[in-house]
Write a structure and sequence with these properties.
The protein is mostly helical. The protein contains 16 helices and 2 strands. The protein has 2 domains: 241 residues, Growth Hormone, Chain: A (Up-down Bundle); 253 residues, Growth Hormone, Chain: A (Up-down Bundle), CATH 1.20.1250. A two-stranded antiparallel sheet has the order 1-2. Helix 2 packs across helix 3. The chain is globular, with a radius of gyration of 22 Å. Bound molecules: glutamine (GLN). Pfam families: PTR2 (PF00854). This is Proton-dependent oligopeptide transporter, POT family. Belongs to the major facilitator superfamily. Proton-dependent oligopeptide transporter (POT/PTR) (TC 2.A.17) family.
C-alpha cells in the first residue's frame, strides 16, 4: 500500500525516514559530479594540453552551464515529467556522459560533458524539491532535514572529489590499473557512482507515496488533466537534440558569455509570466524568493573562489603543514570545506531543531545574513594569512581555520536556501524555483571566475611575497563585500518578512 502525503508528513522524531533514500541518491550523484569536476582542470592541462588560463575558463564555463540547465530541468519536471522521471532521465544522461568519458576521454571530452551538463540539470534541482515535499507547511524540522541532506551532498563530493582524480593521477590503485587506463577507470567510476544513485532511487521510491509523481497522474499532489504520452517523449527527444548544441557552446568559452547574458533575463521574464497567474499572496512569496536568489549570487561569487584563485593561492602561498601533519595544501583547499560540512551539518540541523523548540530559531533572512557575516569573517581570516608568512609562504593552519569559518557561513545559507525555495513556491512552481536557485549558482560561478581572473592578472609574474599581498588584499575586499551584504540583508529583513507572510 502506497503511503499518503499526510502519512509521510506526519512523521515522528527528527527526520522523515524517506529522507535517507534521497540522501543516498544525492550522495552518489554528487560523487559522480564532483568526481568528474575534480578531474577536469588537471585532465585538460595534462592530457589535452590546455594552457592554465584556458583550462580555468573552460572549467568555469562547464560549471556555469551545469547550473544554468537546472532551470530547464526544474521547468520540465513541473510541467511534464514530474520529479521522479526527471531525476531518472537526468541520471541516465549522466551515466551515458560518464561512460563516454570513460571509453575515451580524449575523443569524447565535450560530447560526454554535454550529456553530464544536461543530465545534472534534470537531476539536481528535482531531488532537492522532493526533500521539501516530505514536510508539511510550517514544520520547523524542515531546515534540519535540508542540513542532513546537505551532509549527504558533501559526503559524495568529498569521496568522489578525492578518489576519482587520485585514480586518474595514479595516486590510488596504480598497482592494479596500468597507466594507459587510469583516466578511463576514473571517469568510469563516476558512472558507477551515478548508477548506484539510480538503483538506490529505483528501489526506494515506492516509499515516497505521491511525491514526485508525473503531472496528470491520478495520485499526483497537484491535480491536473492527464498529459498526452507524446509530451513526455518530446522532452526526451528534445533533450537529445540539444546535446550537440551544448557540446558546441561549452567548447567555446566565448559562447558562455552570450549564454549567460541571455539565460538569466529570459528565465526572469518567464518567471514574471508565471507570477502573473498566481494569487497576490503567492506572488509576494515569490518576490521574497527572488530576493534570496539574488543575494545568493553574491554569496557564490565570493565563495566559489575556492575552485579558482584559492587553488592557485594554495599551491603558491601555503606551506604543507596541517596541525603538524604534512599534507597537500591543494587537497585541503579542495576537500576541507566538504569535510567540515559533513561534520557540522547534522549538528547545525539539531541546533535549529533545539532552538526551534525554545522559540529561538532565527528566521531565514537572519540565517542568510549570518551566512554572509561568517563568509565575510572567513575571508578576513584569509586576509590574515599575510601576517603569518615568511617569504610569501603562509600557514596552512590559518587557511584551514578560514575554511571552517566560511563553511559555517555556507551552512547558514545553502541548505537553508534549498529549504526556503520549497517553502515559498506554490506546488506547481516548485521545480522552476529550485531551478532558479541553482541558476543563481551558475551566475555565482561565472562572477567568481571573473573576480579570480582579475586577481590572477594583477599578480602575474609577481614573486610569492608580492602575490600573497595582492591576493590577500583581494580577499579583504571580498570579505568586506560579504559583510556589507549581510548587514543589508538584516536591515531589509522587515520588508522581506512581510513578503514571506507566515513563512519563516
Ligand atoms: N555544494 C552544493 C552542492 O553541490 C551547493 C552547490 C551550489 O548551489 N552552488 O549541491
Amino acid at each position: 500500500m502506497s503511503l499518503t502525503l499526510q502519512e509521510i508528513q506526519d512523521f515522528k522524531g527528527k527526520y522523515p525516514k524517506q529522507i535517507w533514500s534521497l540522501f543516498f541518491s544525492e550522495m552518489w550523484e554528487r560523487f559522480c559530479f564532483y568526481g568528474m569536476r575534480g578531474m577536469l582542470v588537471f585532465f585538460m592541462i595534462h592530457q589535452l594540453n590546455f594552457h592554465e588560463k584556458e583550462a580555468n575558463l573552460q572549467y568555469g564555463a562547464t560549471q556555469a552551464f551545469v547550473y544554468a540547465f537546472t532551470f530547464i530541468g526544474g521547468l520540465f519536471a513541473d510541467k511534464i515529467l514530474g520529479f521522479r522521471k526527471s531525476l531518472f532521465w537526468g541520471g541516465l544522461l549522466m551515466i551515458v556522459g560518464s561512460i563516454l568519458l570513460a571509453v575515451d576521454p580524449h575523443v569524447y571530452f565535450y560530447f560526454g560533458l554535454a550529456f553530464i551538463i544536461i543530465g545534472t540539470g534534470f537531476f539536481k534541482p528535482n531531488i532537492s524539491t522532493m526533500v521539501g515535499e516530505l514536510y508539511k507547511e510550517g514544520d520547523n524540522r524542515t531546515d534540519a532535514g535540508f542540513s542532513l541532506f546537505y551532509a549527504g551532498i558533501n559526503l559524495g563530493a568529498f569521496l568522489g572529489g578525492y578518489v576519482c582524480v587520485a585514480i586518474g593521477k595514479g595516486y590510488m590503485l596504480s598497482s592494479v590499473i596500468d597507466e594507459a587506463h587510469r583516466w578511463n577507470v576514473a571517469f568510469g567510476l563516476a558512472a558507477v557512482g551515478m548508477l548506484v544513485s539510480l538503483i538506490n532511487f529505483h528501489f526506494t521510491k515506492k516509499k515516497l507515496g505521491p511525491i514526485g509523481l508525473q503531472p496528470g497522474h491520478p495520485d499526483a499532489i497537484v491535480k491536473t488533466k492527464p498529459l498526452p504520452k507524446w509530451a513526455e517523449y518530446a522532452v526526451y527527444v528534445g533533450t537529445l537534440l540539444l546535446i550537440p548544441l551544448i557540446q558546441v557552446m561549452v567548447s567555446k568559452t566565448e559562447y558562455t558569455d552570450y549564454f549567460m547574458y541571455i539565460i538569466g533575463p529570459a528565465t526572469l521574464v518567464y518567471l514574471f509570466f508565471e507570477m502573473s497567474k498566481v494569487s497576490a499572496a503567492e506572488r509576494k512569496k515569490l518576490v521574497a524568493a527572488l530576493v534570496f536568489i539574488i543575494f545568493s549570487i553574491i554569496f557564490w561569487g565570493i565563495y566559489e573562489q575556492s575552485g579558482g584563485s584559492l587553488s592557485i593561492f594554495a599551491a603558491k602561498n601555503l606551506n604543507d603543514s596541517l596541525v603538524g601533519l604534512t599534507v597537500d595544501p591543494n587537497g585541503v583547499n579542495n576537500s576541507g570545506g566538504a569535510f567540515f560540512i559533513i561534520l557540522l551539518a547534522p549538528l547545525f540541523g539539531l541546533l535549529w531543531i533545539w532552538l526551534g523548540k525554545r522559540k529561538l530559531e532565527p528566521n531565514t533572512i537572519i540565517k542568510f545574513g549570518l551566512g554572509f557575516i561568517f563568509l565575510g569573517l572567513g575571508y578576513y581570516v584569509l586576509f590574515a594569512t599575510r601576517f603569518f608568512a615568511t617569504d610569501g609562504v603562509s600557514s596552512l593552519d590559518i587557511f584551514t581555520t578560514a575554511l571552517l569559518v566560511i563553511t559555517i557561513g555556507e551552512l547558514c545559507l545553502s541548505p537553508i536556501g534549498l529549504s526556503i525555495m520549497t517553502k515559498l513556491s506554490p506546488a506547481k512552481l516548485q521545480g522552476i524555483m529550485m531551478g532558479m536557485w541553482f541558476l543563481a549558482s551558475a551566475y555565482g560561478q561565472y562572477v567568481a571566475g571573473l573576480i579570480g581572473a582579475n586577481m590572477a592578472e594583477a599578480r602575474e609574474n609577481a614573486g610569492k611575497a608580492e602575490a600573497l599581498l595582492t591576493y590577500t588584499d583581494g580577499y579583504k575586499q571580498l570579505g568586506l563585500y560579504a559583510l556589507i551584504a549581510g548587514v543589508v540583508l538584516i536591515l531589509i529583513s522587515p520588508i522581506v518578512k512581510k513578503l514571506m507572510q507566515e513563512v519563516r
